[in-house]
Every structure is written in C-alpha cells, then in structure tokens.
Amino acid sequence: MLDQIDKKLLKEVADLHEIPQGAYNIRKNGAGLSRNTTANIDIVTKSDKPGIDVIIKPGTKNESVHIPVILSESMEDLVYNTFEIGEDSDVVIVAGCGIHNSTDKEAGHDGIHEFFVRRGAKMKYIEKHYAEGDGKGKRTLNPTTIIEVEEGGTAELEMVQIKGVDATKRDTVVKLHENARLIVSERLLTYLKQEATSIVTVELLGNGSTAQVISRSVAQDDSKQVFHLNMRGYCECRGHIQCDSIIMHNAQVSSIPEITALDEGAQLIHEAAIGKIASEQLMKLMSLGLTEKEAEETILQGFLK
Known about the structure:
By secondary structure, the chain is mainly beta. 10% of the residues lie in helices and 57% in strands. The longest helix is centred in the C-terminal third of the chain and has 13 residues, at 292-304. The model has no long low-confidence stretch (mean pLDDT 94).
C-alpha cells in the first residue's frame, strides 16, 4: 500500500515510519489512501467538496490525529478540512504535505483548514512541508489556516518548511476570544530561486486574550521571502510578534510586522531583525576544528531548531 517514496514523505512531514496508531487520514495523489477513527475522534468525508471533517468529542485527552498529504504525481491537489475541537479536550493534530516530483510538470497542494477550538480546549497543530525529486517541474504548497479559539481555549501552531518547496504562500488567520491563548512558531528555509510568503493575522477580540508569534527563517542563494505579521488588539489583551531572519548570498527578505491597538488596554509588541551570520560565531566554531561550511551549517541548524 505504501511504497518507499510514500514512506519517506510520511517520515519527513509527519515523523511516521509506518501507519500510525489512533485516528488518522492519509491522502495520496488527490484521494483517500487509509483512515482510522477512535471512540473519541471521528473523521468524515465531506459530501460537497474534497476534504474531511475531523470531530473531536468534548473532554478528549491525550489523543492525536494524523492527516498527512503526499503527492508522487504531477498534479494540482486541493482539499478543504474542518476541525471541531470539543470543549475541555487536549489533542495534537499532525498535518503536513510531502511532494515527490520527478517530472517536468508542476506538482502542488493547496490545503484550506478551518479550526473551531471550543471553550477550555487545547490544540497543538503541527504542519510540516517538504519536497524532493529530480524533475524540473515546480513543487508548490499554499496552505490557508483559519482558527477561532473560544473562551479559555489554547491553540499552539508549529509550522515548518525546511527543504525543497519552490514556491509557497501561507495565509493564517486567528481569532481569540476571552482568555484565549495563541502560540505560533514558524521556521522556514529557502534556497536556489525559491519564493515564500507568510501572512499571519491575529485578532485579539476578548479580554485576557494573549498571543505570541515567533518566526525564524534562513534565506540562501537567490531565494526570496516575505513576512507580513499583523496583530490587532480590540480589548484588554497582550500580544508579541518576533521575526528573525538570516540572509545569505543574493537572497532577499522583507519583514513587515504590524500591530494595531483599538483599546487602551491592548499591550502589543513587535520586533524584527534581518542580518547575516556573525563572523565571531563562525570563528569560534572553526577554532574547535569545524570547517567554515560545517560551522555555518551548525549555526543555521541551531537557529532553526
């Protein structure tokens, strides 16, 4: 059922070495490949468009859902997924897309994910992007993530793209209600002529809501990156944006942090930094016996960890 390419893609995007335990839905080349549900987590195929509904019962604890997508053919895949995270539940959702393109035609996946994190629920969402293949065809990934967090809920997002994707546009919109919490960690590496755009919009709508968005990236060769991080406080709330980038060779990086306070109780902070690898860091590692290239790789791995 899974060939060697499939297994490698699953390992890269979902840390899976075999079919997982618990709830999962594996999508391959535009169609469902394998699925399993549990007593607390149901997965239902949408009837009106491609995609699934993931329904997590209230009070569900210590369970996970894996929903990876893999492409091993040149095609344009589009999927709509909706997640209902029941009250007072605590779950981990592992998504991600892996592309293997050995043709001269484009292979791409667009995923539109909508989450409803109900009162008191906690959700950790992990999304990894990876692409490979010796074909000249482009490998593209364009995820849209829409999240609404109800009173006392928590959404933690870990978004990673570190290899092989030629072009990506990531659009993330989050709405936070009273005492809701958001934590976003984004890591990105581009090289050659790759292009990446990340747009994150956070609306703090309820008193006591908090948000932290941290983005780290490395741009190499002739690649281009654009980050537009928006945070809007409509009430007594706290928010922090931090965007750090290392630029190398002939790359281009644009970082646009934007904060808007619409209430005197909103406390919002933004930070942005773009720079090259510090020479003293290289020299210190090289004095320990590393070559310049090895020292450079060590610094970049630590930065993106």
